[in-house]
Amino acid sequence: MPIGYAPLQCSDPTRSDWFGNGEAQSAICVPPRRYLTPMTADSHKLWGGRFAAPTAHALDALNRSIATDFRLWPFDIQLSQAWASALAEAGVLTEAERDQIRSGLDVVAENLANGAQPEQSDEDVHTMIDRMLHIEVGDPASRLHTGRSRNDQVATATRMWAMNAATTVDSAIRDLQRVMLTHAENLRKTLIPAYTHMQRAQPVSAAHWMLNHFWQLDRDRTRVANASASASSLPLGSGAIAGCAFPVPRDQIRQELGFASVSQNSIDATGDRDFVADFLYATTMLGVHLSRLSEDLILYGSSEFGFVTFGDTFSTGSSMMPQKRNPDALEIARGSAGRMLGNLTSLVATIKSLPSGYNKDLQDDKRPLFDSVDTMLLVLPAVAGTLGELRFNSQRMRAALSSSMMATDLADYLVAKGISFREAHGVVGALVRQSETNGVELNEMSFKTFAEAHHSFDHDVFDWLSPDASVARRNATGGTGPNAVDDQIAAAHTALGAPTRRLQLIP
After folding, report:
1. Cα 48–49–53 angle (5° rounding)?
2. What's phi and psi for 2, nearest 5 deg?
3. C-alpha–C-alpha distance, residues 62 and 302, integer Å
4. Which of 19, 89, 380, 448 is the 20 to 30 Å CA partner of 322?
5. Residues 501, 329, 497, CA angle at the centre, nearest 5°?
6. 218 and 366 both lie in a single domain
């Protein structure tokens, strides 16, 4: 997993004596208060010279964001090193100071990677790193913040985190898609009812049904990639709002940090979070699509359907009913879609009607972003695992097909005889009504019944009531016919960039 993503581990993040309002913090765990130094008037801050008195404890508690933003530390280290080099190019730092600062930041990064934790006085991760750097290199650390603000610093680190997370999420989606594609290859000849309005509609290849979910996820990958591209505009060098007064080489910073472009407006660069909204929209749609897949499988795994059987390792049992096999992973995946939507709504509501420039409301941009990514990176492997050990009951799926589902084929048969589709639709509808009234399937009705319904029917009409023939006829691109499905599978491999090696599913 890329650096900067994985949350730190703790023994009990829900305890009230953990700092951060006593709420669960999945992103970071920090030590109990008794292990932290008390707040003092001369605590390490990046501001305060114009104030005659220290801030109130209640404001410090409200303002402190490190329980959320601690996970940004790898990116703050990287951008600070790039900024040191830029300041040297601008003549603000000597080469020796630049090298000292960059080396000191390497030490800070090593200490953080080894478990160094915040002090009570650390307002955020940026303050913490600044404090630790002062410990390592002394006075040169005071020069690092020249020409930059936490406004452009935070925006840059958050964008870097989002781009990094996009890569991780994309990889998890692809893992799920690979399992789908393997099933699709094995289900080419297996037929299943397709439903509209949850009513049996037409027979399709089970591979075709599976690939329907594959392509939804493929578009989700596009949305995640677009969100990453939206984040790939460098804010660093924008200062607090008006830009940097020193001739820092922003394009050099861009290249070192891996951004695609440099922001064109310093007010916009520090004061907007549309890239976070883009990412949250991508995860919301991903959650929605996973909920639809989950709903299908939950229904198909019920006793009433019996199309699939869930495996043991991604199912749970009942504390009361010994016979139960519950698809908990899929149910949680289905429920998480609401959580994704809530995070998106929260962020959009936060940035709505904000005045230009940075406002402290934006401190809450990271919680929904981190939560959505964390949730998806729990849900995606669980859904992939559930799907990987899924067993399909081809006999139950076949038994769910009925000749009435070939009503459209009968209409097509008459159209091929030169009858208009409107007329054909009426004729076949009457035949369906008659079959339901008499309690017989269409393929059990006599040829005489068909001939009386319309003179164009011939004895070959029964060939059109076969589900296999119905599927075989639908070979137009995107259809469920064998050739169309083979083409679709090939296209899916191309979209996925999958190797020819197939995954081994649990039998």
Report:
1. 65
2. -60, 150
3. 48
4. 380
5. 25
6. yes
In 14-94, where does DSSP find H-type helix? 57-63, 66-69, 73-89
Q: Is the pTM of this model over 0.90?
A: no
What's the N-to-C CA distance of the chain in angstroms?
A: 29
Which of 349, 381, 399 corresponds to the end of one domain? Answer: 399
DSSP state letter for 192: E
- Ramachandran angles phi, psi of 35, nearest 5°: -95, 0
Average pLDDT of each block of 10 consecutive residues along the chain (507 residues)?
A: 38 31 35 35 56 69 80 96 98 97 97 92 91 95 94 96 96 96 96 94 96 97 95 96 96 97 96 96 98 96 94 75 81 95 96 89 91 97 95 95 90 93 94 92 91 92 93 95 96 77 43
Domain tally, the chain = 3
407 shares a domain with 390 = no
pLDDT at 184: 97
Residue 444 is assigned to a structural domain of this protein: yes
Residue among 371, 296, 304, 286 at smallest CA distance from 331: 296
Whether 182 contacts 497, CB under 8 Å: no
Pick from 359, 214, 364, 348: nearest CA to 289: 214
Q: Which amino acid type is present at position 489?
A: I
Judge whether 65 counts as a catalytic residue. no
Q: Is 60 exposed, middle or buried (0-12, 13-18, 19+ CB in 10 A)?
A: middle
Query: What pLDDT is recorded for position 49?
Result: 60
Catalytic one of 11, 16, 57, 197: 197
Q: For this structure, is 197 an active site residue?
A: yes
Q: Which of 399, 423, 438 is the last residue of a domain?
A: 399
How far is C-alpha 428 from the geometric centre of its chain's CA atoms? 45
Active-site residue among 318, 356, 420, 455? 318
> To which residue do tokens 């004596």 refer?
17
480-484 long-range Cβ contacts below 8 angstroms, 24+ apart = 480/194, 480/203, 480/204, 480/205, 480/208, 482/188, 482/189, 482/205
Q: Which domain holds residue 433?
A: 403-473
